[in-house]
Every structure is written in C-alpha cells, then in structure tokens.
Design a protein that fits this description.
The structure holds two protein chains of two kinds. Chain A is α/β, with parallel strands linked by helices. Helix content of chain A is 46%, strand content 19%. Chain A has two domains: 144 residues, Rossmann fold; 225 residues, Rossmann fold (3-Layer(aba) Sandwich). Chain A starts with a strand and ends with a helix. By secondary structure, chain B is an alpha/beta fold. Chain B is globular, with a radius of gyration of 17 Å. Classes of the chains: A alpha/beta, B alpha/beta. The interface between A and B is large, with 40 and 44 residues.
Chain lengths: 391, 262
C-alpha cells in the first residue's frame, strides 16, 4: 500500500505505534468492504447527523458580489454544528468494531472535540479530549459542551498551548495506551492511514455537493472553495470534484495578520517541507527545524501543518491555495450574517471571504460552491474581542 | 574495528553492560550541558546520546520535553550542538557519540550535509525516534555513505517477525524501548522484559541496549543482567539541575551495570 502522496505523508512515528497503525489500516480496509459497516454508517449519517446537508443558493450574497452565483454547502447544519461529525462517526464505528475500550482526541476550536465527545456518549465509550490551554480559554462554550457529554477535557499548557501541543499530548497518551485506546484524529493529517481514512469519511460532503449542484443548476460548478487548517472539510468537498478538471479547487489558508508579518497559519503559502505528527508536509518552522507558533483569529485554523495530500495537490497545481487574513474573514462573517441570516464559523468565514473576492470577477452564469464547514455560535465572544481591539 | 563495537567488546571483557547516557544538548544552556556531558563521561558513561531539542517532542515525557523547551529558548540549535560535539570528540576520543532527535530537525539541516558533518566530527551514529522501518531508507543511504550507524528502535509492541526486519543488516547497536509509552523514570521494569530481550539478542547481529524508565542503580542492574547496554535519559537530565548530582548518579549507574551471571 502506498502510504505517501508524492514525497508527502508517510508514517513518521515512534516504533511503539507502528503495529497499531498497521492493524488500523487492515481493519479499516475490512470495514470499508463490509456492507454492514457502510449500512450502519449511512443510517446514522441520515438519522443522527441529519444528512444530506443542503446546498443553498445564496442569492442575496451573489447579488451583492455582482458576479458568479454562490452556493453554500451547509455543513453547519449537521448535528454538533460542523463537518467534523462525519469523520468522528466513521472512526468511532471503526473503534467499536476493533474492540477499543476508550477514545482520545485533540481539538483546536473544539468542534472536533465536541463531535468526538458526542460519539463517545452515543456509543457509551469513555473519552478524553486534549486541548491547548489558550483554546480552552477562547473556545469556552465548546469545553462546556464536551463536559456535558461526559468527556474529560485535558488542558495542555506546554509549548504554544494550542492545537499542535494538544496533538503532541494526544500522541503521547496514545503511545502509552494503544491499542486499547483509539485515537480519533480530527483532520486529514497524522500518519497514514489517517489522511486517507479521514478523507474517505469526509468525502460524503463532495459527493453530495456534486449531485446537488447538477440537480439544481444542471452543470458542475466552476469553482469550489473551502478553508484549510489541517484541511479535512476542504479535502472532503474536493473529493467529490477531484476527477472534474474543469472545476477549480481553491483552499483558503489563514493569513492572520498577514503572511509577511509572520503572524499567520498559512503552511502552504508561508512554510517549508518538514515532518510533524507523523507526516511529511508543509510546515511553519524556523530554518533549524523548530516548529513555530502560529496565529489566526480562528482557533480551528491555528495549526502549523497541513494535510499531506493538500501539500501534494499544491505542488501539482491540482488545487490552488489562497490566503485570507483575519480582517477579511471578519468582514465576510458580518456580510454573511447580514445578507443571508447565517452565522458562519470563523474558519468557514475564510472560505466565504475568498468567494467574495472570486465571485465579482466571474460571469453571472458561473457557479461557486463554498463549503460552509461550521456554524459560528462558538465564536461570538472571540469576534467581539477582536473588534474591540481592531475597530 | 569501529568505535561502537570496541566499546561493547571492552564491556563484555569487563563483564558489564555498557552505560549509555542521554543528555539534552543545550540544557539548561550550551556551556552547562557541555560540562554535564564531560561529567558523565568522566564518571563512567561509555556512550553519549546527544539529544537535539525539538519543539514538538511527542515521544518524550515531561522531564525531557521541558528541558528541550528551555534549551531552545536559550539558543541551542543543531549547528551549535554539532560544534559542541566536535569539542567533546576531541577531549574524549574513545567515547561513543550518537545523535538522538526527531527527524524534522535532521531533515531541515539536509540529510546528506548532516551525515557528512557527523563523519567529519567523528560522531558514530544517528537515532531518529520518529523514523520507523517504513521511512528509514531516506536516512539510511547517507548514513551508509558516511560510515554512520543508524540505530533502530524495537518496542514491546514489535512482533518477532517485524523485529527481524528491523535488525537485519543493522550496524552499531539496537535500542530496545522497555515499555509502551514515552520517556521518563518508572518504578519497575515490566516482567516480560527479560524474555523479550533474550529473543531480540538472539536475532540481532549487534548488541542490544535498553532504555526508557531506567533511573537508579538498582533498575540499571536489573536490566544489565539481560542486555548489552543500559540507557538512562530523564534521570540524568533531572540530575543536571543540581551541582554534583549528575556525577553521583552516573557513578551509581555505572556500578549497577556490573553483570553477576556472565
């Protein structure tokens, strides 16, 4: 089995975890071929998660831009409020099938933590979520949600106390407790087979969106836009269109205060090749290989790496990776709230901002699909703070 | 004969296990860590694992993690640690030196450039904790070209079949991780350790050393009975904070390395 994407990806992990990864790969392929596994996954996606999610023609937003027609893939309407649940459901079904007794996860904005905690409750499994102390602070509502669901949240104070440090802590815990503990990784990062597995579980977004677009508009979209931190919502929606060369795939990285300031989280646009959390990929790091702290107003994009397949696609030009800064994301957030009555997550607001740039340059007959990966309730406090400091 | 082989041969003659000390290079600062490494060597360490600090040490417990963070904050990087390694080599021509880190630090330096520099300095080998069998060819080629040992890890999770693949054609020594988990002192060694080591030593073409969790003369002694070498890391790094403690610890560990049943 090829575990790499070009030079990217791989299994750069301690020997102690290698047998666990091999078994995970074996079991995943068995599950994938098992109709009963797929049937249970499909049933829960429909009746528990609430799929399919709508593809919504945002007419007022499109008129405001005066160009292409913008359609929103409403992943924010999923149970738990983001795309993350598509993946946690799949992984936890796999964990149960493998006989694992306990779940762990890392989380940044808390959406993956909440989605994992939800599945832990649904399947009656104990769960611990590792979260950077900075994120515990700025995403407090999600900490409460996880605790309500019976999950223990472990606040990580080391390093920059954000997502990467939470992931270090989760990997340490996993090293000591695998294979009884299943590590539910939240994005298309980590050692193989995680990037492949998470893509497969998120691909439902793209497959639905493609069919819905054909039904509603009679054609494929000209462009599909999604935000990229680790890149799971982007890889999920891109997966539906990766064999359609006419569709431009645009990933949007978090520019924070601007790539030139150094205070950003744009790994592809501002990083170099390195190895972190089990994979070779673009990384924000010093020239001596120390990973640098990242910055974005959006906690979910605040990660120094990116899924290895995105790194590969960036090199190939199969997808294009743009940068949206904090202020542009906040403006897009306001615009979508006021024009469409939809409160997007700050992460997704980066994708909306890119659509606001792209749509006016396009013909009225063009179609852009934006993956609205999550809802913004968790960000209220954060946005108020940002506006107080900047406006 | 290469330096690492001579060291293990001497140890066998002296009926003891080799003592391998892991030092977090640059902790608490470069000058102090250079002195601490000298202390370790002067008090009986046979091989020094020169730990290069990394911002995201996912295989390390709190002691080595926080020491690494301090070292980075105080200016340690691979370049100035290599300069330190060159000075240590000049003072201690017979001591084994192994570079020990995470792959990203090595990768960013340039693998070919790094191996060439290590050969020039007289470092004997490299150990990358996050470079398993599946990924090691990338580093193995420049190591072979520059006459460096690439030290592999085997863990209690490794099957005998996999262990065979890992140790095949290995030079230098094999590092057996005593427990499933991360670095740091532990109260007792797992009961299956002796049996696992016997199996591994049978299939390994080179000596087998044991690390993770060994912190005292007693635990070193328990391991020395069934291994060719004993690695102590976190306990040494902790001892480096108090004057005189590192020397005492290394002497105690060295005494613990004596084999009774060989």
């Amino acid at each position: 089995m090829n575990t790499h994407y070009g030079i990217y990806g791989g299994q750069y992990i301690a020997e102690t975890l290698m047998p666990t990864l091999k078994e995970l790969e074996r079991q995943y392929f068995l599950a994938k071929e098992d109709p009963a596994f797929q049937a249970e996954l499909d049933d829960l996606l429909k009746h528990y998660v609430g799929r399919e999610s709508p593809l919504y023609h945002a007419k007022r937003l499109s008129e405001f831009c005066g160009g292409a027609q913008i359609y929103l893939k409403r992943e924010d309407l999923n149970h738990t409020g983001a795309h993350k649940v598509n993946n946690t459901l799949g992984q936890v079904l796999l964990a149960r099938r493998m006989g694992c007794k306990r779940l762990i996860a890392e989380t940044g904005a808390g959406m993956h933590g909440v989605a994992t905690a939800t599945m832990a409750a649904l399947f009656g499994m104990p769960c611990e979520v590792f979260m950077g102390a900075v994120d515990v602070e700025r995403q407090a509502p999600n900490v409460e949600r996880m605790e309500c669901l019976g999950t223990t949240v472990r606040s990580i104070t080391e390093g920059s106390a954000t997502l990467k440090d939470a992931m270090n802590a989760a990997i340490r815990e996993w090293t000591a407790t695998a294979p009884e503990t299943f590590y539910v990784i939240g994005t298309v990062a980590g050692p193989y087979p995680y990037p492949m597995m998470v893509k497969d579980f998120q691909a439902v977004i793209g497959h639905e969106a493609r069919r819905q677009c054909l039904e509603q508009t009679g054609k494929l979209p000209e462009e599909v836009i999604a935000c990229v931190g680790g890149g799971s919502n982007a890889m999920g929606i891109f997966a539906g269109f990766e064999n359609d060369p006419s569709v431009r795939l645009t990933g949007v990285e978090a520019g924070g205060e601007g790539v030139s300031t150094g205070n950003h989280a744009a790994s592809i646009n501002g990083g170099q090749v390195g190895i972190l959390h089990g994979a070779k990929t673009y990384l924000l790091q010093r020239s001596d290989g120390q990973v640098t702290p990242t910055y974005s107003v959006s906690a979910g994009l605040d990660y120094p790496g990116v899924g290895p397949e995105h790194a590969y696609w960036a090199d190939l030009g199969k997808a294009h990776y743009e940068v949206i800064n904090d202020d542009e994301a906040i403006d897009a957030f306001d615009t979508l709230c006021r024009l469409e009555g939809i409160i997007p997550a700050l992460e997704s607001s980066h994708a909306v901002a890119q659509a606001l740039k792209s749509a006016p340059r396009r013909a009225k007959s063009d179609v852009i699909i934006v993956n609205l990966s999550g809802r913004g309730d968790k960000d209220m406090e954060n946005i108020r703070e940002w506006k107080k400091q900047h406006r | 004969m290469n330096r690492i082989s001579s060291i293990f041969q001497n140890c066998r003659r002296e009926k003891r296990a080799a003592l391998i000390i892991f030092a977090e290079a640059g902790y608490p600062n470069l000058a102090q860590s250079e002195q601490d490494i000298d202390t370790a060597i002067e008090n009986g360490a046979d091989i020094i694992e020169l730990g290069i600090p990394f911002s995201d040490p996912m295989a390390d417990g709190p002691v080595i993690s926080s020491a690494g963070q301090t070292a980075i904050e105080n200016g340690a990087n691979l370049q100035n640690i290599l300069e330190m390694a060159a000075r240590i080599r000049q003072r201690h021509p017979d001591t084994g030196l192994v570079l020990f880190s995470y792959f990203n630090v090595m990768y960013n330096y340039g693998l070919e450039a790094l191996c060439a520099e290590l050969q020039r300095i007289g470092v004997d080998g490299i150990l990358a904790v996050d470079l398993p069998l599946e990924e090691r060819d990338e580093l193995l080629a420049p190591c072979r070209a520059h006459n460096l040992h690439l030290i592999p890890l085997v863990s209690p999770a490794t099957s005998p079949e996999r262990a065979r693949a890992i140790v095949q054609d290995v030079t230098g020594f094999v590092y057996y991780v005593s427990v499933r988990g991360i670095t740091g002192a532990r109260a007792a060694m797992p009961p299956e350790l002796a049996q696992n080591l016997a199996m591994l030593r049978e299939i390994s073409p080179v000596p087998v050393v044991v690390g993770f969790g060994i912190a005292s003369g007693e635990s070193a002694h328990a391991v020395a009975e069934c291994a060719d070498g004993v690695v102590v890391g976190s306990a040494f790094v902790s001892a480096c904070t108090a004057p005189g403690q590192a020397a005492t610890l290394v002497r105690t560990l060295r005494a613990g390395c004596a084999k009774e049943n060989s």
